Amino acid sequence: MTTPSPGNFHQRCESPSPDIDTKSHQGIVGALNYASVASRPDVTCALSLLARKLTQPTEEHVQLATRLLRHLYHARHCRIQCKRSYTSQLPTVHAVADASFAMDSQTSKSRTGYITFYSNGPVAWYSKMQSLVTTSSTESEHVALSSTSKDVMFVKQSSEEMDQLSLGTTPLATDSAPAMRIAINASSSMRSRSIRIKFHNMRDSTENKTMQPCKTASADDIADPLTKPLNKQQTNKHCSKLFNVNCYITNKNHNNV
Question: Which end of the chain is more exposed for a tag (fewer CB within 10 A), N or C?
Fold first, then answer.
């Protein structure tokens, strides 16, 4: 059983191979994308890496696509489950945001990853390079919070329109204490001076109590798999929280593949 992608994949840069059937590869990536968008946030980051070389894939990209197919087969028992809280009969919304600072070795851009939960089940997720080069990990985390808050607003408004009830303040977790303080405190600081105004929408959401940033430990950041490749132990830990099952169940049927 393998993880969705190897830990050093994002650092590799090779020339396209003329022997690769590009159309066949694109078809596989398209099928993987369907799974990622519909129900498998655990493969979203690896798929994002694949899509960056869709027209000129290398042998490494073909191997990654095969690896993802194998991962999805072995973890085919993983499924999204939405369950209401034991303390409230009302549906709840919460989100987790994360960023990998300067992940791209060529552009020095960071990657945003987030997951929005409805009744404790993931309903929206995202993994993409940020549109600008950030100058610190705090700035990249704040940009991730800004992107997450927009998605949370969409989920909340959709839920409130369907259920005709108010969901109150939504907790938005981050493993960056400085980014959380910037989102809460509108005063300027050396850390926040380089952050563009368009990313300060999180402050408005905090002030009107639509959302409330909160701190989570880096080891427990469930959005971590959407920002970078992880090892098997970390992948299983986060996937177990996402799907409420062990991703790496082994039996004779799995071992035959």
Answer: C
3-state helix, strand, coil split of the chain in percent (to 5) is 45, 15, 40
Q: Dihedral (C-alpha) 58, 59, 60, 62: value to the nearest 10 degrees?
A: 100
**pLDDT tens profile 23-39:** 999 999 999 999 999 99
Alpha carbon distance 154, 14 (integer Å): 39
- pTM higher than the cut 0.85: yes
What DSSP string describes 61-101? Answer: HHHHHHHHHHHHHHTTT--------TT-SS--EEEEEEEET
User: What residue has token string 């989570």?
Assistant: 216
CA distance 148 to 235: 22
Check if the beta carbon of residue 32 is closer than 8 Å to that of residue 65. Answer: yes
Report angle CA 16, 21, 25 to the nearest 5 degrees.
Answer: 90
Tokens of 165: 């009830």
Place of tokens 């959401």: 205
pLDDT digits (tens, 9 = 90+) for 169-225: 899 999 999 889 888 875 555 556 657 666 778 888 888 888 999 999 999 999 999
Query: 71 is written with which tokens?
Result: 């991962």
Q: Where is 124: in which H helix or E strand?
A: strand 121-129
99 vs 228: CA distance, rounded Å: 9
Rounded distance between C-alpha atoms, residue 114 and residue 239, angstroms: 14
CA dist 108 and 91 (Å) reads 39
Cα torsion at 224, 227, 232, 233 (round to 10°)? -20
* Ranges of residues in the chain whose predicted pLDDT is under 70: 1, 10-14, 85-89, 164-166, 186-194, 196-198, 248-257
